[in-house]
Structure formats: C-alpha cells, structure tokens
Design goal:
The chain is an alpha/beta fold and 316 residues long. It folds into 2 domains: 5-149 and 295-315, 3-Layer(aba) Sandwich (Rossmann fold); 151-292, Rossmann fold (3-Layer(aba) Sandwich). It has 8 helices and 14 strands. It has a 7-stranded mixed beta sheet with strand order 10-9-8-11-12-13-14, sandwiched between helices. A 5-stranded parallel beta sheet has the order 1-4-5-6-7, sandwiched between helices. Strands 2-3 form a two-stranded antiparallel sheet. Helix 7 (260-266) links the parallel strand 12 and strand 13. It is globular and about 60 Å long.
Length: 316
C-alpha cells in the first residue's frame, strides 16, 4: 500500500466553516491557500504551503452558486496536481447536479456524469461525499468514491427526542429505501407518499396519496435534500389530510433555495433537522431549523483514508 506524507486539508470558498470544524476534529491546522476572483470574474488559486507528496484533501460542497464552486474546485485540484501533491481527494459534502443522473427527456444532458468526468480530468484521485441523490452516480467516476451517510446522525437526534407513536414517511418512492433504513434505526413503521409533478421540469409538486397507516401518529418526513420545499410542504398537506397529529422533518442537504425557507416557516412542521453539508446563513435559520454537524463524520473518514483503513467500517 502506498503511504503518503502527512495530510493537508484545504478549503475553497463554498463552506470554510465546515473545513475548519473538520480540522478541529483531526487536530490539525487548516491549510493556507489564497482563493479569490479577479475583477474579470476569473478564479485564482495558490497554495501557500508545501504540498509535494502530501495527502491533500480539498473541502468544497457544490453550494450556491454551484457552477462557481465546481469551477473553483477544479482549479484547486489542478493547482495541487501541478504542485506535485501525492494524492488529491475532493471532499464534496453536497454533490450538485445529482438529480440529472439519467436521460428522462429527449435531448437532455447527464450533468452528474459530466461533473464526474471534469473532476477526474482535473486530477482528483478520489472523491469523498455524503448522501448522493442517486447511488448510481458513484459509477460515473473512474476513480474511487466513498459515499458517507448522515442517516445515523439524524437517527441519533430523533432517538434522543423520544417521540411516541412515530412513523417515518418517505416523501416520494425514490427515497423509500433510505427512509426504510431510518425507520429501522428508530424501530418504527414506514409510510410512503406517492408524488407526481405536473411537468418534469416544474418545481411544483402534487402529492397524491399516503401509502401506510399514519392517522393519529407523529410523522417524521425524510429526504436527502430540501430545495424549494415544494415536495415537503405538499407531503405535509397530504399527511395532515390523512390525520397525522404532528409533523417533524429531516434531510441531509438544506439547499433551501428560492421560497424554501419561507415555506418551511409558514408550514405546520414542528422542527426541520438538517446537517451542515451546505452553509445555512443565519437569515435562513428560523426557529424551526436545527443544524447537526457532519464534521466528525467527514473528519473520521479523512483520517481513515489517510491511514489506509476501512471507511465502510464506520457504519458497521
């Protein structure tokens, strides 16, 4: 097994707070780098310390605006490669374009595959990510991909709340397998909401019906990400119509774009529990939103990758 010199963790501008928390877990300083834009909108990157033969980890979720942060990471990878880094791991807590993982309409791209190709061509040796929207995205890469899950973190939080008569609700059929895993961890039943979009490209959602017994119960909706919260609020309306007592919600990635935060605020959701895979500005943190940290999860995975240990063993 190839052994690399000591590790270095650097961050782009997408989520420096998360990178700092990861370094705090690892008990190492955050690497020094100069990352900024010129007045012509071109991105400049320079590592301010030696990375030759080092094990380099670049932390950069594809947060808003995703195109800028993807390009920034590609340039960081190229800079590390040209500085003779021993190995480069792209740490991408949130992988944008995950929804474009297949051709579901004529003459459309598979952007999730395109981004994977860009990362490989730029010089990344491996990728570390959290809760991809679709598992098959791992197969888009020709380099190793370690996909972590925040499910144990979310489950631990709700176990601590001790909610009675709880049921986990998958907000659509596509997330039902992960929702089943959450229900198993909480030792509660599972329900599924059948969802339909009037138009494939519309963000508006029509929830049709609830599959499973939810009447008189406390519902916990589960999804990998919440964007405009259209699916979520539609699910909540369907659950209330089916007779639930209260609704809690959780997801890994709080995209919360456009009207997302306002919709959550105006809904009857008691609490929305998310992680910090994406930065959530304080102006979006209303009284309902609870943020849990994935820094220890990512930090432990980085340590195991560096030391050549199993990452999968973290979840056994």
């Amino acid at each position: 097994m190839i052994r690399y010199d000591d590790m270095r963790v650097f961050t782009g501008r997408a989520h420096p707070t998360l990178a700092e928390d990861i370094c705090q877990y690892l008990k190492i300083p955050l690497g020094k780098a100069n990352v900024f834009k010129f007045s012509n909108d071109n991105t400049f990157v320079q590592f301010l310390e030696n990375v030759r033969q080092r094990d380099v980890f670049l932390v950069q979720p594809f947060a808003y605006p995703p195109n800028d942060h993807i390009m920034e990471l590609l340039i960081m990878i190229d800079a590390a490669k040209r500085a003779s880094a021993g190995r480069i791991t792209a740490v991408i807590p949130y992988y944008a374009y995950g929804r474009t993982d297949k051709k579901d309409q004529p003459r459309v791209p598979i952007t999730a595959r395109l981004v994977a190709d860009l990362l490989s061509v730029a010089g990344a040796d491996r990728v570390l990510t959290v809760d991809l929207h679709a598992g098959q995205i791992q197969g888009f890469f020709n380099i190793p991909v370690d996909e972590l899950t925040a499910l144990p973190i979310l489950a631990r939080y709700f176990l601590g709340k001790g909610l009675d008569n709880l049921v986990v609700v998958a907000v659509d059929i596509g997330i039902s397998k992960r929702s089943r895993d959450m229900a198993a961890r909480l030792k509660v039943p599972l329900a599924i909401i059948e969802k339909r979009r009037p138009n494939t490209n519309e963000e508006r959602v029509e929830s049709l019906n609830v599959i499973g017994d939810v009447a008189g119960k406390v519902a916990l909706t589960f999804d990998d990400e919440i964007d405009t919260a259209g699916t979520l609020t539609s699910a909540v309306a369907a659950l209330e119509k089916a007779g639930v007592k209260e609704v809690y919600s959780c997801c890994t990635h709080p995209v919360l774009s456009g009207p997302g935060t306002h919709r959550v605020d105006m809904s009857s959701i008691k609490e929305l529990v998310v992680t910090d895979t994406l930065p959530l500005p304080y102006e979006k943190r209303n009284g309902k939103i609870v943020v849990l940290s994935v820094a220890p999860l990512l930090g432990e995975a980085i340590r195991r990758i560096h030391e050549g240990l199993s990452v999968g063993a973290m979840f056994e």
